[in-house]
Amino acid sequence: MKEFLYSRNAVYEALRAGRRQAFTLLLAEGLQPSDKLTQIVKLAQERKCKIEKAPRTRLDKIHQNHQGVALEVSGYPYADLTDIFEQAGQRAEPLFVLLLDTLNDPQNFGTLLRTAEAVGVHGVVIPLARTVEVTPAVVNASSGASEHLRVAQANLHQAILELKKAGAWVVGLEGGAGATDASQVRLEGALGLVVGSEGEGMRPLTRKSCDVLMKLPMRGHIASLNAAVAGSVALYLAYLARKK
Question: Domains (ranges, CATH) in the chain?
Fold first, then answer.
C-alpha cells in the first residue's frame, strides 16, 4: 500500500534509511533553496525516484504541514521480534527494547520513537490491535526516527515472555503507590521497558508480566507526566545506566 510522507525531516530520513520503496517526490512550486532540500533531491535521484514540481494546493491536500515536500512511498516495513534480537547481537550489546501498551496518540508515539532511536534501543514492540500504528503522522512526529527503527507488531504478553527467555529484565512504567522508585530499579543490562496508554496505563496482564513496576520521583504539584514525557525520561535513565 502506498502512502505520502510529508515534512522535510520525515522525507529526508525515509530516503536516507532506504527501507521503503520511494516512488515520487513532490516539491512545491516556488520553494526557496536550502541545504536540507538539496540533500533530499540528491537522495531521491540516487534512489531513481521520480521528482515532480507541484502546486502547493496539491501538497496541502496531503497535509497542511508539508513544508513544501511530500514523498510517495510503500507502507511501513514492520519487523519481527527476531529482527530486534538480531539487532542487539549485531551491535554486541545487551538487549534494549521499548514496549508500548495500546498507545493511542500519534504525537506521543512519534515522540517516544524519536527518543528510542536517540538512546539506541534495538527495537520497539506494539500490540496487534487497539493501538496507533506507524502512520505518516507518526513518522512526522518522530522527525523520521521511525524509519531507522525496528518496530514489531506482536502479542505483548508473549513478547514479554520471549524477552525474559532472552535474559531481559522487564520494567513497567507505573505511577501507582505500589511501584518502586526509579532510583531503586536496576536498568543496566538486558532490558525491556513497558509504557502504558495515555489514559489507562498498562493492561492488567501486561502489568502482571513485568518483573518490576517503576515510578518516576515527583516533587512538583503535578501528579503525573504524560506517556511520552514519562517514557522518554525512563529511556534516558536506562541509557545512562547502560553507559556505566
Answer: 2-74 (3.30.1330.30), 81-243 (3.40.1280.10)
